[in-house]
Design brief:
Elements: H1 4-29, H2 33-41, H3 44-56, E1 61-68, E2 72-78, E3 84-90, H4 102-106, H5 118-138, E4 146-150, E5 153-157, E6 160-161, E7 164-165, H6 177-194, E8 197-198, E9 207-210, E10 213-216, E11 223-224, H7 230-247, H8 255-263
Antiparallel strand pairs: 1-2, 2-3, 3-5, 4-5, 6-7, 8-11, 9-10
Helix pairs in contact: 1-3, 6-7, 6-8, 7-8
Bound molecules: adenosine-5'-diphosphate (ADP) and manganese (II) ion (MN).
């Protein structure tokens, strides 16, 4: 006799097979150069995640690579309504990936039980970046607005125009360093006070300037204040910030004083 549980199981399996079939068909029909590149770079499960986003209407077209790093690739895409999107895809197969990540994951109460294989870490890293972007946005810290995340694929607001990202501080030193410095100190304070986060990787590489205002990005490593190294990370962030802005001619707040201001109740 075929029982209900068995039937449900078969139904579930069939739905899954149908989904795979539909996705494969979509992959075959949408075969432009970009899609071919996608297929060369990513494993099957990453492709499935991307195509699921397309099926759901979260992503319309993917136009091209913005940056291909060792750990992640950033794509310029558009929503079906034509809004510019940045898609960040962490590489699940890069051996590089695990290096130096566990320190930021294990000490963070949100991610204590993550497994140690590269894929699990890449997934956790994407979820962590998404959650940090959400917390930062709520704390009124300007970051790319998070839109969606699944597995190792993160969709966010595109910072820039027509596929060209806004310049980072590394690429284009600021016209008004004092003003930018002060906004950044305020952002670090809001992260600490309102989001209970320490950025942990403040540098001219991870700050873009758009219309004379700084935007923090690449914040997967940011940790909750409970992290055992949170205060060391904060110290390092302020040192990096001060080092950069001093060279830009800004009047900087000494690190100790800045930290007192950021952390005071
Ligand atoms: P990685 O982890 O490889 O360092 P980043 O998040 O720092 O990746 O992004 C690398 C580059 O991609 C950035 O320097 C920037 O030029 C571009 N980029 C990243 N996020 C966005 C975004 N939301 N909008 C526009 N460009 C972006
Ligand atoms: Mn980066």
């Amino acid at each position: 006799m075929v029982n209900v549980a068995y039937r449900k199981n078969v139904d579930k399996r069939l739905t899954k097979q149908e989904k795979t079939y539909e996705t494969t068909q979509l992959m075959k029909t949408k075969r432009s150069e970009e899609y071919e590149t996608l297929e060369e770079v990513f494993d099957r499960s990453t492709l499935m995640t991307i195509y699921e986003f397309m099926n759901k209407g979260a992503i319309g077209d993917i136009h091209g690579v913005v940056r291909a790093g060792k750990e992640a690739r950033i794509y310029w895409a558009k929503s079906p309504e034509g809004k510019e999107l940045a898609i960040k895809i962490y590489l699940t197969i890069s051996a590089e990936f695990k290096k130096g990540k566990m320190m930021y994951i294990e000490g963070d109460p949100r991610f204590r039980n993550v497994k140690h294989d590269t894929r699990s870490i890449a997934y956790a890293w994407a979820q962590k970046e998404y959650k940090n972007l959400e917390l930062a946005t709520k704390a009124k810290v300007r970051v790319p607005k998070p839109i969606s995340v699944k597995n190792n694929v993160l969709i966010m607001e595109f910072i820039g125009k027509n596929g060209t990202p806004a310049p980072t501080l590394k690429e284009l030193p600021p016209k008004h360093p004092q003003q930018i410095y002060e906004i950044l100190l305020e952002y670090i304070t809001r992260l600490y006070q309102k989001a209970q986060l320490v950025h942990g990787d403040v540098s001219e590489y991870n700050i873009m300037i758009l219309r004379n205002k700084p935007i923090l990005f690449d914040i997967a490593q940011a940790v909750k204040l409970e992290h055992p190294m949170a205060s060391q990370f904060l110290q390092r962030d302020i040192n990096n910030l001060n080092y950069y802005f001093k060279r830009q001619g800004a009047n900087i707040t000494p690190a100790q004083k800045a930290i007192e201001m950021i952390t005071r109740d």
